Amino acid sequence: MKFKRTLLSMAVIAATLGLTACDDDTHNIDVNVTVPDGDGTLPPVDEGDKPVCPPTGDGDCDDKPSTENPVIDMGVHIPVDLSGMDVTRYVNPFIGTGNLGNTYPGATTPNGMVQLSPNNGSNGWEYISGYYYHDARTSGFSHTHLSGAGAGDLNDILVMPINSRSDFMINEGSATLNLEASHFKHKDEQATAGYYKVELLDYDITAELTASDRVGVHRYTFPRDTKSEIIVNTGFKLNWDYTSDSFIRWDKENNRLIGHRLSDGWAASQKEYFVMEFDQPIKNVRFAYYDKETKQYVNAPADFTEIGSIKGSQTYDAVNDRDVFGKYQYARAYVEFDTEKQGLAVEAKLALSSTAIGNDGTNKAPLTGAFLNLTEVDNKNFDDVRLEATNEWEALLGKVKVEGDETYKQTFYTAMYHAFLGQTTHSDIDGKYYRAFQGRNAYPNGRPSWGKEAPLVDDVRLADANNDGKADFTRYDTFSLWDTYRNVQPLASIFTPNALADVVLSMLSYAEEEFTPLDAAGTASESRKGRLPEWTFKGNETGMMMGMHSTPVIYDVLAKGILDARMTELGFSQADQNDIKARLITAMVTDARGKTSQGVSWIGEYEKNGWVPAQLHDTETDSYGKHSPFKDSWTASYSLEYSMNDWMIAKSIALVFGKDDPRYTEFANRSNNWQAQFDFGGEAHTPWKGWFKARDNNGQFIDKNWTDPITGGNTGKDWRPDMFNWAFSESNGWQYFFSVQHDIHGLKDLMTQADRKFNPEAKEGELFAARLDEYWSTYPDRNAGDNQFPVFNTGNVGQHVQGNEPDLHVSYLYNYVGQPWKTQAAIAASTNVCYDNTADGICGNDDFGTLSSWFVFRALGFYPVNAGSIYEIGTPMFETASIDVGNGQSFNVVAKNVSRENIFIQNATFNGKTFNRTYLTHEEIMYGGDLVFTMGDTPNKQWGAAADSTPPDTGIGEFLHEKSLPVGAR
Predict the structure, then answer these.
(1) How many CA atoms lie within 13 A of 245 on its CB side?
(2) Contact 670, 651 (CB under 8 A)
(3) Which residues are in coiled coils (predicted)?
């Protein structure tokens, strides 16, 4: 929902600059709306069909629901009303399932292994989560999903109830799909945290879903019918995912199925083993598979009680150098129940494990694998499991209680919910988990003829941080770190610190696990270790995105004492604790040095030069490569992000070993390498001075009239900061300009130096503030023929992109130049363009809660610009927000007079004393206290403006590469 015209958007910036605004298509339009204090202009705000009411309300025209009778607005969906619900009533899992959000609406627990959610059955980018709101068909409910990602995988083990009333099928994108399906209406669909329900119209079947951490629980209410079945589909694949092997066995004696699905996709080797139990007697099971000769699904012989092989069906054809996939690669079981005389409700429990189907205990050996995980729901029916899931979410989401704007309460609690859908449980109850080291499930024997595709090397490991042979922590995975380090993990540091500590121990295991590599011919080499996660899930490092962004998470748990507290709780000795912290330092340093790093892009060049060189393509490239003239279009991003990682490493070393450790000085100095990409000058007659730019192999900045020293070619156009795919990841020079989160004061000071090169009278911070003003007030030209806008460029306010990660901190940066009132306006504008309580209510990929976590912090009134212990003050959203920080204490944020008009801080107190700082510390929050703001509809330009009110200077070390900069760059 948008703020009203009388307050909004860039009220203050507009007052300063006299802006024009943009409509939904970002075409510039003239506006002449008076700012409350009478000067300048404002962008318009779409009011929709809602009347504009006076702030106090006037009976018929009152847009603020009563807090005594809160209105839960779920659109056409009927709100869920089940026992145990309090704050979970406000969770709307449909938010983000349309547009670009890529979230899913199904049932899961906080950081759960199982994500049991509907699948439409179609391929495509909008179906990455398996579910796209604007497609009212479903082909079933699979047990693993990615929330808000930009690439597709998972959707393991699809379950679909059917009967004889319909033969509706979906077959889009691949003949191997051919899915039984049903239409549905959104008015017949309900969801909340831990629960999902839908009416399958083609079959008149009610489907309900819930989950424990490792078990998906289904309830299907069938009408009377001559034949009612539940399909268990292990062959289902979607988008990047590829089924390499299926196995299903009907265990008649125990009224259950066991099986596995092995797959290859974005994560190269995925293994899901399962046990599925039913509470009603199975009448019959028939099996079907995809016949590769006739290219259609056929029934297996009627006497089959299993299909596929429990050991896997792939074989290797050495003569033709190819893997032969099993005949039953794409397999399904049709589990029939007796509904001939009356309808029937069937409950099914499906437990997952990445390690094994496991031992069921009949041989007196311990339970293992999926059988062990199934014990989470022993002696519990659907309603029992649902109530436990609700209680888990209530315990987590209830750690913060907000009061005020009822509509934003739904967005807030849904955003909190989304923030805990990543960092998923990967280990079984006994601490065992699957780990893939090299190769692919699709080619487990490698491809010698290719000369590079090595055989699959994988293993089952134990979550054992202190190496005593006993499981101790929960092994997590699904680390979308380029996105989530910015705010998801900082949010977890407040609400789930123990889980965050286990996340870091999981990261350490990724770095330390040894394996023996095999070359394409299967020859073993010396054993080696891995690396800290970049983008991992299901025991695989995908190499997606960039950076060493485990480092800010590691530093955070060290600096906040979270890891110490968790290790003490686990019973680790002091020697063990010291050892683990030392090993974390070793893992970070190993990744950050060229000679020892395992796969960190360009780290050797960065370590040597302080920057990463760019060059033009020197060979014909594919269609993806043609999106940029450069072989690598992210070179400037590497330097900016690696320097931030270096800062995190240096600060971690200081905590564990002290600043006298020479590695501290090494990485403190490296943390200044962002300066190596900053050009004071530029070619004559170009206006682009004082910008981050790419550099070539001779160290020259790539600007006007540039020639590549390697290829002799040129780009055919001059550089400007709005050019995409030149040097910045998913962004341009505007959107990455402020990506020096660890040293904002250093960036401000360097810009002042650049400014004074051409204007000796320039004031401290003047260019920084002016660049921010320009950033928020000028829109890119989307019609420029020489530019290519990426799909990620969404949620625009000026050059700002709220729908992607690099810009998320920028709205808070006016605090660094004593203009926090502009920060408050910028935050309001960013909220307007990106968030509302609808399916389309997240303006970009949510990336495992990253855009959502921004909203949570924004609503609370503070944000971790550098993903750590300092939180910059923004503008609070609610009248009260009370955070349970443990030990019987709470941190309370009170915003007097706050409304959608009153976004500007007039004054503040902290624990009864005048408060003019524009930042908080983590320690202050976790100690508890009362932060009270008085809000108004016009800015108080004095509050937070003093030099000693700005966030602290966090720069460390020295820049060692200034002498190697090109002439004119300084």
Answers:
(1) 26
(2) no
(3) none
Angle between helical axes of 551-559 and 562-569 (0-180°, round to 10): 70
Q: Please state, in angstroms and rounded to a whole number, the distance separating the CA atoms of residues 212 and 215.
A: 5
Contacts from 861-865 at CB under 8 Å and sequence distance 24+?
861/893, 861/895, 861/931, 861/933, 862/919, 862/920, 863/487, 863/809, 863/812, 864/486, 864/487, 864/490, 865/741, 865/744, 865/809, 865/812, 865/813, 865/951
**Strand pairing class (115-119; 913-914):** unpaired
Count Cα neighbours of 567 within 13 Å in the Cβ-side half-sphere: 21
Among 10-24, 471-485, 800-814, the range scoring the smallest mean pLDDT is: 10-24
Count of H helices and E strands in the chain?
18, 45
Q: How many CB atoms lie within 10 A of CB 535?
A: 23
**Average pLDDT along the chain:** 90
Tell me the residue ranges of DSSP E strands in 72-114. 107-108
User: Residue with structure tokens 């170009």?
Assistant: 686
As a whole number of angstroms, the distance between CA 212 and CA 349 comes to 10
The CA distance from 264 to 273, in Å, is 15
Question: What's this model's pTM, rounded to 2 decimal places?
Answer: 0.92
pLDDT band at 682 (very low <50, low <70, confident <90, very high): low
At residue 756, does pLDDT exceed 60?
yes
Order of strands, sheet of 115-119, starting from the edge strand that comes earlier in the sequence: 107-108, 115-119, 140-142, 158-163, 228-233, 331-337, 284-291, 296-299
* Token pair belonging to 664: 């501290």
Give me 594's structure tokens: 């060229």
pLDDT tens across 609-627, in order?
999 999 999 998 887 777 8
